[in-house]
Amino acid sequence: MKNIPERKNAVPSSTDLNTNGFRQGTGKISKKIFSVATISALTIGGLLVSCQDKNNQNNKTEVMQNNQEQKEGILKAIDLYVEAGKKGDGNIAKPAFALTATMSWSENGALKSVPIQALFDGFSAAKPMEAKYKLTTLDVEGNAAIVRIESQFGSDKYADMFTLVKDGSDWKIISKIYQIKK
Question: Distance (Å, rounded) from C-alpha 177 to C-alpha 85?
Answer without folding.
Answer: 16
